[in-house]
Amino acid sequence: MSQIFPIDTVGHDSDVVFDNIGMTFGTKTGVTQAVANVSGVIPEGKFVSVIGPSGCGKSTLLDMVGGLLKPTKGTVSINGETVTGPRRDTAMVFQEDSTLHWRTVLDNVAFGLEVKGVPKADRYESARRMIELVGLSGFEDHRPGQLSGGMKQRVAIARALAMEPRVLLMDEPFGALDQQTRQFIGRELLRIWEKTRNRVLFITHDIQEAVYLSDEVWVMSARPSVVKEVVTIDLPRPRPEGTHTLPRFRELEDHLWELVKVEAEKTLGPGARLA
Amino acid sequence: MSTDVTIPSGIITQQSADRARVIRDNVWRAAVLVALVLLWALLSTMSDLVASPADSLNALAERFADGSIYRHLNATLQAVVIGFLIAAAVGFPLGYAIGRSKFLGAVFDPLVAGAFAIPRVIFFPILLQIFGVGVGAQSAMAALAAVFPIMVSTTAGVRAINPLLPKLARSLSLSPLQTVTKIYIPAMAPSLMVGIRIGFSIAFINVIIAEFFAARAGLGLLALRAYGMLDLPTMYGIIVLLAAIALAGNLVLWAIERRLGNKL
Amino acid sequence: MVSQSLMVPPSEILIRLAEIVPTDRFGQDVARTLTTILVSFTIGLVLGVPLGIFLWRVPAAGRILEPFIVTGYAMPTLLFYPVLLAVMGLNAGPIIVIAASMSLIPIALTTMVALNAIKPILHKLANSVSASPRQYYLKVLFPAATPLIFPGVKLGFIYAVIGTVAMEFILASQGVGFRAGFYYRELNTADMWAYIAVVIVLSVLVNGVLTWLEKRIRRDML
Q1: Of A45, A127, C124, C163, which is least packed with CB atoms within 10 Å of its CB?
Q2: Radius of gyration of chain A (CA)
Q3: Are B35 and B121 contained in the same domain?
Q4: Which residues neighbour B5 within 8 Å (Cβ) at sequence distance 6 or greater?
C-alpha cells in the first residue's frame, strides 16, 4: 500500500524528477529552511497529489517545478533537462483567481498561447476546444466578472490545458471554492484528465480530494519538510460518483489522515487537535 | 514546540530597524531639499533672471527688518484663515447632509463634480465687484474654492462609514448628538483631515492667485509687484516664504492625518 | 450693496456672446487656450506615467519623495508663476510649465497606487507562461491598471484646464481666461460675464466627456 522513501530517483527521461532538492529562504528575521530534502518522480500519465500541514513547503515544491523558484540544493528536471526558469511545457493553475478581468473567456484561455506567439486562428481553435472540454461552451464572449468562482477556475484550467503541457501544476486550485462546487469541479477535473492524461502535480489540503483524484499521494512532513511517505492509490479508474463510499477509499483516507495528523501536531504544538 | 528553524531575533531589532529606516528616509528627504537649493544656486550663476538664494533670503530678511512685510503677511494669512473657516462652516455640514441623504446625494453629486472642474478663480472679478478690492474679496475667493473639496471628502467619509456603526449606536440607545460626536466624527476623522488639508491648501493657493490679480495688500501682490519692478531678489524671497508656509502647513496637517489613519 | 454694473441681464450676456463668438479674436483665444491645455496635459501624461512607474518600482524613492509630492499635489507650482514669467517671458511657456506640473502629479500618484493594487497572482501567472517583460507590461500590467489609473488621468486633465485658465487670468496676452480678467479691468462687465460663461461651458464639457469616457473604460475593463 505504501512505500518508504528514498525511492529510486532514476526515472525515465520524460519524467519529472526531483533530485535531493532543498529550499532555504533568507527572511528579515533570519534564515528559514522550508524544504529539507525531497526526492521523487512523477511518471508519465500519473496524477500525483501532495498533502501536508500548512507551511510545509508544498507550494514551494510546485513553484520549483514551474521554474518560479530555484531550489537552493539539488535539481528538478523535466524530460532530462534541469529546470532553470519557467518552461513552455509546464502550465500552472493557482488557488487565487488568476483570470484577466478585461479579457473575454476566449482570450483568457488563449492567453498562454498568445504569449507563446501562436497565430490567432490556431490559438482560438485550441482555446475553443479547451473551453468545450471544461464545459464552458457558450461563455466564450463573457468576461470573468460575469462568472462564478468555479467557472473562473475552469477558465484557468482551460488556459493551462491549452498550452498542452507535459506537466500540469495545480496549487490548491479549488481551495477558494465552497464545498459543493469543489466536489463538482473535482469530478469534472477527473473527467477532463481521463481524456488528456497529462502528468499532474496537485497540491491540496483536502485528503478526500487527494485520494479521489490521484494515482499517488505524497505526504510531506512539517518544516523543514521531507516526503514522509508515498501512498499509492490503487482504486480502479475511471472513478464514478460512488467511489467515496468504497471501503478501500475509507482505508486510504484514514491512513493518510493519521500521517498528516502527526505532522500537523508537530506544527501546532503538543496536544493540538484539528477539528 | 515549533519545528521552524528560524533563527530568532527579537522584536527589538525589528523596531530599531524600522526606526533606522525612518531616519534614513528623513536624511534623504533633507538631501533632496539641499539638492533643490543647490540647483537653484547653480541656475542663478547661469542666468541674470534668477536671483541667488543668498540674495533672495537677504532681500526677504530686509523686508522683515524694516517691518514692511507684516502688513502683507497679515493680509494673506487673514484671508486664508477667514476663507477656510467659512468653507469649513459651510462644507462640513453640507457634505455630511449630502452623504447621509440619498435624495440630496442624487441632486448635488453631479453639481459638485461639475463645479470641481471649473477654474474657480474665474469668479474672482465678480467677488471683487461685490466686496471691493481687499481682504474681503480674497477671503470670499478662498471660501468659494475650498468649500468643494471639503464637501467632497466629507461626503466620501460619511459614505465610507461601516454600516454596522449606526446600528451599534441605536442598540446602545445613543442620543442623536452622541451618535454624531461619539460615532460619526471619530469614524470619519481621517477623511475629515483630508478635507481640512486639501481645503487649507486650496484656500491658500486661491488667495495667492487672487492677490496676483488684484489686492491692496498680500504676499502675492508683493511678489508680482517685485516682478513688475524687476526686483528679482525680493520676488524670489517672497516665493520661498510662500512655499515654506505651504510646505510647513501641509506637512503638519499631513502628519496629523497619517497619525489618525494609523490609529483607526 | 450689489452695484448696478455687476448685474448684467442674462439676455445681454447672450447677445454679447452671439456677437463675440464669430469674431476672429474669439477663435484665436479659444485655440490658444485649448492648445495650451492639450500641450500641458500631454506633457503631464508623458512624464506622469513613467514617474508613477518609477515610484512603484523603487518603493524607497516613493517613500522619500512622498511628502514633496503630496505637498506639490495640494500646493501646485503656480506659486512660481512670477519666477517663470521672469525667466521665460510673457508667453504660453510659463503657463504650460505650471499647468503640466499640476497635471502630472495626480497622474503619477494614481499610476503608482494602481500598480501597487495589482494582484501579485497576475505577476506569477505572467511568469509561469514565460511572458517577456514587454509582454508582461503590455498584456497584463497596463490593461489591469488602466481603469484604476483613469481617474488620475481625468483629474490631471481637469488640473491642466484649471492651471491654464487661472494663469491666463492672472497675466497673459491671449486666451479665454485672460479675456475674462481683461474685461474686468476694462470695466466691460457684459463681456467679462460672456467670457466667464465660455470658461464654465468649456469646463463642464470637458468634465462631461471625461466622465463618459471613465464610465466606458470601467464597463469595458473592470
Answers
A1: A45
A2: 19
A3: no
A4: A31, A32, A33, A223, A224
CA–CA separation, B184 and B84 (whole Å)? 22
CA C24 to chain centre: 26
Touching B: which chains, 3+ CB pairs < 8 A? A, C
Q: How far is B34 from chain C (nearest CA, A)?
A: 13
Chain C residues at the A interface, defined by Cβ less than 8 Å, are: 119, 121-122, 124-132, 135, 139-140, 143-144, 146-147, 220-222
Domain count, chain B: 2
For residue A129, give the DSSP letter.
Answer: H
With an 8 Å Cβ cutoff, is A141 touching chain C?
no
Q: What is the domain-level CATH number for residue B143? A: 1.10.3720.10
Size of interface A-C (CB pairs under 8 A): 59
Full domain range(s) for residue B107: 53-263
What is the per-residue pLDDT across C121-138, written as a single tens digit (0 to 9) for each? 999 999 888 889 999 999
B256 and B146 within one domain: yes
Mean pLDDT over residues B119-136, rounded?
Answer: 88
Are B3 and B58 part of one and the same domain?
no
How far is the alpha carbon of B12 from chain C, nearest alpha carbon, in Å? Answer: 23
Interface predicted TM-score (ipTM) over 0.95: no
Dihedral, CA atoms, C131, C133, C134, C135, nearest 10 degrees?
A: 20
Q: What are phi and psi of B95, to 5 degrees?
A: -60, -40
Residues B63 and B91 in one domain: yes
> What digits encode the pLDDT tens for the residues C22-55?
888 889 999 999 999 999 999 999 999 999 999 9
The pLDDT, as a whole number, for residue B263 is 52
Is the same domain home to B29 and B68?
Answer: no
Same domain, B81 and B63: yes
pLDDT digits (tens), chain A, 275 positions: 444 444 444 455 567 888 888 888 877 677 788 888 888 888 888 999 999 887 778 888 899 998 888 888 888 988 888 888 888 888 999 988 999 988 999 999 999 999 888 999 999 999 999 999 888 999 999 999 889 988 999 999 999 989 888 899 999 998 888 888 888 888 888 988 888 888 999 999 899 999 999 999 999 988 888 888 999 999 988 888 888 889 999 999 999 999 988 888 877 765 544 44
Answer yes or no: do B20 and B113 share one domain. no
Q: Which of chain C's residues have a Cβ under 8 Å away from the Cβ of B201?
A: 74-75
pTM: 0.79
Same structural domain for residues B40 and B171?
Answer: no
> DSSP string covering chain B, please?
----------HHHHHHHHHHHHHHHHHHHHHHHHHHHHHHHHHHHH-TTS--HHHHHHHHHHHHHTTTTHHHHHHHHHHHHHHHHHHHHHHHHHHHHHHH-HHHHHHHHHHHHHHHHS-GGGGHHHHHHHH-TTHHHHHHHHHHHHHHHHHHHHHHHHHTS-THHHHHHHHTT--HHHIIIIIIHHHHHHHHHHHHHHHHHHHHHHHHHHHHHS-SS-HHHHHHHHHHTT-HHHHHHHHHHHHHHHHHHHHHHHHHHHHHHHH-
From the list A29, A33, A223, the residue facing B9 with the nearest CB is A29
Listed residues B33, B50, B67: the one ending a domain:
B50
Q: Tell me the nearest-neighbour CA distance from A24 into chain B, angstroms.
A: 10
Specify the residue for cell string 463538482: A184
Looking at residue C194, its amino acid is: A
Measure the CA–CA gap between C112 and A256, rounded to whole angstroms. 47
Name residues 2-61 of chain C within 8 A of B (Cβ): 2-3, 5-6, 60
